[in-house]
Every structure is written in structure tokens, then in C-alpha cells.
Amino acid sequence: MKETKDRTRTDRSSKSPSTDSYPLVLDIDDFKGDFSFDALFGNLVNELLPAYLEDETDTSEGHGANDAMSNGHLRIPDAGKSAPGVSSPLFPEVDALLSLFKNSCTQLVDLRKQIDGKLYNLKKEVSTQDSKHRKTLSELEKGVDGLFDSFARLDSRISSVGQTAAKIGDHLQKHASQTIDLIKYLMEFNSSPGDLMELSPLFSDDSRVAEAASIAQKLRSFAEEDIGRQGIAVSVIGNAAASRGLEVAVANLQEYCNELENRLLSRFDAASQKRELSTMAECAKILSQFNRGTSAMQHYVGLRPMFDLEVMNDDARLVLGDPGSQPSPSNVSRGLSALYKEITDTVRKEAATITAVFPSPNDVMSILVQRVLEDRIPKLLEKLLVKPSLLNPPSMEEGGLILYLRMLAVAYEKTQDLARDLHSVGCGDLDVEGLTESLFLPHKDIYIEYEQASLRQLYKSKMEELRAESQQSSESSGTIGRSKGATISSSQQQISVTVVTEFVRWNEEAVSRSTLFSSQPVTIAGNVRAVFTCLLDQVSLYITEGLERARESLTEAAALRERFVLGTSVSRRVAAAAASAAEAAAAAGENSFRSFMVAVQRCGSSVAIVQQYFANSISRLLLPVEGAHAASCEEMATAMSSAEGAAYKGLQQCIETVMAEVERLLSAEQKATDYRSPDDGIAPDHRPTTACTRVVAYLSRVLESAFTALEGLNKQAFLTELGNRLHKGLLSHWQKFTFNPSGGLRLKRDITEYGEFVRSFNAPTVDEKFELLGIMANVFIVAPESLSSLFEGTPSIRKDAQKFIQLRDDYKSAKLAARLSSLFV
């Protein structure tokens, strides 16, 4: 095959058109196997260098080789080139060889590039295959590791199962042995009734009491269960004869267990007296097998000194004090704090002993704390909280209902603190909070009724106290005749903001108890609303009665005025006495006016205190119940409506009192010559009249208290009404006089004085009326022919102006009626 290939290449080379071109073809296969550079080189140059070929041929013949070369291609010499006798240069093949070599180099470079490309592709493919191989190996390693883990777990499981099987076998063997012993012991107990003498030594050996107790309990449980199954079987088969069961064994075991339990309890008591905790713990551990140790726990708790009768009697003396003395809440609070601290310390000490002795200390602590809350505390509360009768409540001298409520609050709060302290010491699963609440249920069920009754009793007592103080004050100051004007009995019972503040303080205390006795928002809201309603009733009644008393003084002053109204035909001495009495009545009216304004002011302050208290303390407690807040606001408005009615009536009486005095002053001080001065050439007097000065001075003095007492809309309404009444009264008063021009000027000065005073009322309608009065006063000043021009800008005063015009002194002489008839049509 190689020879054929070489021959082909030689043929292709021999067909070259010239010696300068050597289309040699080098193949990769030429470099495979036993490669020899010399052979390759010879194959390249044998056509150009015959001598080299001959040398090679000789060498080959000498060695017995054939013409085929192991590497390279055999080149056949050209006949023309090898003809003898042809002369040539010294080395004529140089150019041909150079060309050959360059061509060979080019082919070798191409072959190298081919080889490099193949090597790159192979390298890339090898890298890809290597990555896949490594990934496969990694997955195989993980699988192998998982397999090893599975084998390890399986091996461990097999080992565990083997060990468990061995333990079960040992356990079964042990139980089989124990079962045999139990059967033997059961047969001993079932031998004859009441015969405990023939039992095994185990049941009489004091050193093996624990083992005997355990076995006796097991036998007893089995025997009772067997009897129960026999009972079921007998009920199934009817009257068929049943085989003899284990009734004898049950009876004997019960007798033995009772004897053993009593023996252990005696040993436990002896060890307890000696404080031998190890022996106590041993006995308690054994006794725990009898009814879970309940008898031992109760026995231990029952023998505690803290439950002795003498100790509990001392509790009452510590809290209540000496017999016969009335305890106070503060002393009871201190006594309860001291007593409950002592109880807590005692329970804490017992807890240390119980923890060291009993296998289930929480159960023992539960019994101990329960005994404290069901035995010791109730006996104390029974003596402390004696529920009074609502039909015949104790008097305030005896403390009243408020004393019981305060005692209840102190006891409840301190007992709650005790329950928390006991819970922190430890009480097992005992519901300490619920147990404590149950102690006060008989008191809390009707608590709110006692709270309301107490508030009523406090109010009644306070009113009696105020009346007694008023009466004592009246007696000490003597009796002043009503003609003097001052009503002392009424003034001594003025509304007091301090008293209303005391009402609120009572209510705050009651609300605090309501929140103390319940944690449910709905219950708290209901109780608080009931308590707040009591406050509304108290304040409403108190301020209404105070206003009514203040009104009585106004009524008495009015009666005094009416009494001294005289006719026209009386003697001078009688008139003087009546004037003096009228002055006294006026003074009484002024005093009653001030007293009522003070009452109104204090009434407003009292209502403000209640409203502030509602906003700060009551409102938030009512919000959890839908509609409770709005209902309380409505109740508050309703409760104050009666006081508002009394205040309104009193303010109307105040206006009547003021106007009565104004009318008296005008009647007494106003002279006919004030507005009809003689035309004697003397300059007119531009000062206000004496009556006007006296009236303004009186109004300034008496209304000072009104300006202080009244506020807001109440003040505005009162002053507006008073201004309107004053305007109407002045109009009526001036209708009694006749005016000339100089008198009209003086009237206008009076109107200006009145107008400046009423301007302090800040009532625009009143100011407007007095401004119109000033305009109407011009009808007395202008000439008759100018009257019609006065009403061109103010037609609204024509009706009143018509009356004023008739008061002119020249009304008839100037024939003003006919002249102005067209104006008033």
C-alpha cells in the first residue's frame, strides 16, 4: 500500500512541466510509525541528486534492501538527466533544491496547522469528556456515600432492635418472676377473711415498707378489676352460678393498706415533730402510693399551726383592734397588710419544707393555699365585713354605709395582693384569682345598691349639717326684723362650691370602688353610670334649692316694696316714714339681687365642676358600652334643667327688682321743672337730671355683681332684657312730663347718659333703641315747622314720636295736631 502511494507521488512529480516546480505531496501518514528524517530527506532530493541516490542504492544493495524506502517516497531518476557525458556546473542543483525545500517547508507548515487544528479539537473534546466523566464520578460518589449511610443506619437499627429485643426479653423474664410472686401474695391475701398473720415476711418487715406498699397497691388494683369483670359476666349470664372471686383478697388488702397507711402517718408525724426531713420524705414517698398521697398531704396541711383556732382569733384582734371600738379603714388597712405579710412569710417557709419532703410539692402547696383562702381568710372577713341593712342603715355617727364600703374596698384590695403574693410563692394549678373572687361574691352581687344608698345617706347628712350650721349662725347673730331688709336665714344657706366639690369627691371614691370590684368594661360602665346619676341628682337638687332660697329673698324684698306703697293723700309724717321704709325695702332688694347673682355664679361654677369631672373621669369609662356616653350626657342636661328653670325665674325677678327701684328713684327724684325750666334768661343746665344720675349710679352699683356672675349667652340675654325693660320704663316715665326746648335739651342729655351706660351691655338692639330715643328727643327742640324733616331718615320711630310731640308745651298753641296730621296718616 505504501509503495503504491509512493509510486503515485513519484508519478505526479515526474509529470511536472519544469525542474523549478516540485509539487511534492507530504501526507501526515509519512510521519507515522518509525519515522526517519534521513529517509524523508532522501526521498525529497533523490531526483535532483543522483549521486545521493546511488549511494543510497549501494547501501541498500549491500544490506539486501529493496527499492522501497521505509519513510519517504522513492524518486525514479529521469533518463535524460542521468545520461553520461553531459557536462554540468559544480553544483547545478542548488536552485532546484532551494525551490524544493521552500515548497516542502510550505507543505510542512500547512501540515502543522492541520495537526494543530486537530489537536485543538481533540483537546476540546477531551476536556468535555473529562468534565462529563468527573460529574459522573461525583454522582457515583454521592450515591455510594448514601448507600454507605443507609447500610450504617440499617446496621444501627438492627443493633437497636437486637438490644430492644434483649431488653424486652429481660423485662418479660423479670415481669414473669414478679407475676409469679404477685400471684403467690394474692393467694395469701385471698386465703381467709381477716387473716393477716399468715402473710409473707415482706408485709411485716419495716425495712421493706415501700416494697410492701407497692405490691399491696398492685394486688388491690388487680383484685378490684377482677371483681368488676366478674360483675359484668354475672350480669350477662343472668342467674348462673359464678365462681368464687377475689372479694376476700380485696377486703384483706384494704385492711392491710389502711393499717400500713396509719403506721406511715404515725411515723411521719413523729418525724415532723423532730424536723427529720429525710424520714418525712421517705414516708411521704411511700404514702404517695395511697390515693396519690392525698391523705398525707391533707394530714400535713391540717396539722399546721397557722390554722389553729387561737391564731385565727388573733387575726381578728390584729385587724379590728380592741372589742367594742369602731375600726377605721386606715387601721384595718395597716392590720391587713401586717397579717397578710405574716401569712405569706409562713407559707413561704412551709414551701421550703414541702419541697424537701413531698414528691409532688405543687399539689401540697395547692392544698395549703386553698386552706388559707377557704378557712383562715373567710373567718377573718366574716368578722370584718358585716353587711348592714339597707332598710335600717347605721347612722353616720356609727360610720354609716360608707364605712362598710370602705372596709370592703380595703379588704378586697389587700386580699387581692395576698392572692398575688401566694401565687408567686407557688400554689400548683390552684385558681387563686377565682377562689379570691368567690370570697367577695356575696358582697359584690348587690354592691351598687349599697353605693347608691351610701351616696344618698351622705347627701342627707350633709344637708342636715348645713341647716344646723345656718340655724346656729342665725341664733348667735340674733333676729333681725324683716323691715330691715336682710334675710339672714337665706343668706346663710348660699350655694357653696366647696359642698359641690365634696359631692364630686364622694362620687370619685365610689367610681374608684366600682373599677376596683370589676375588670369587665361593661360591668364597670353600668356601675359608673349609676353612681354618676347619683351625683347629678345631688348637684341638681342642691343648686336648685339654693337658687330657690335666693329667689325667696327676692320675693321677700318685693313684698316689702308692695307693703310700703302709699296713696297720694297722706300726712307728711306718714310719708316720711313710708319713704324710710321704702329705702329699707330698696336696700333689701339690692342685697337680694346680689345674693341671687352670687348664687347664679356659684351654680355655674358647680355645673362646670361636674362637667369637667364627667369629661376627665366618667366619659372614658362609659365608652365601651354603646350609647352609655350619650345617655349620660342627656341625663346631665335633664338634671340641670330644673336649676336652669329656677335661675331663669330668679333672673326675671332680678330684672323686676331693678326696674322697681329705677321706677322708685325716677318717681322720687324727677321734678316737673327738670324738663320745663322757666324762660328767665338764665343759661340752660346741660347736666343730667338728678333722677338720671341716681338711676345710673344705682344701675352701675347693682349690676356690678351681674357682670361678674353671668357669662356668655346668659349674660347677653339678661342684659338685653334689662335694657329693653329700661327703655320701656323710661318711655313710660317721660310720658308724665311736658317739655319745652330747654327741657328737650336736658332730656337729650339724660338719654345720652342712659345710652352711654347701656353701651356696656354689649347689646346692639338696646344701643339702637337708645340712639332712636336721642333722635326722638329732637321733637322738643326744633321749631314746629321743622318737625316733619326729623322723620325722613327714620320712619320707624313715627309712632313713638307722635306720642313725644304731644308732650311739647306748645302742642296745642302751635296747633301741631292739625299741622302733622298728614305726616302720621
From TrEMBL:
- Record's superkingdom? Eukaryota
Q: Which residues form the Exocyst complex component Sec10 N-terminal domain?
A: 95-205
One biological-process term from Gene Ontology?
Answer: exocytosis
Q: Which stretches of sequence are listed as region Disordered?
A: 1-20, 57-82
**Keywords for this protein:** Coiled coil, Exocytosis, Transport
Any one GO cellular component localisation term in the record: exocyst
InterPro entries listed in its UniProt record: Sec10-like, Sec10_HB, Sec10_N
The Exocyst complex component Sec10-like alpha-helical bundle domain is annotated at 211-818
Segments of skewed composition (Basic and acidic residues): 1-14
Coiled coil as UniProt keyword: yes
Does the record carry Repressor as a key word?
A: no
Name any one Pfam family assigned in the record.
Sec10_N
Q: Which family does this protein fall into?
A: Belongs to the SEC10 family.
Protein's UniProt name? Exocyst complex component Sec10
Q: Which organism is it from?
A: Erythranthe guttata (Yellow monkey flower)
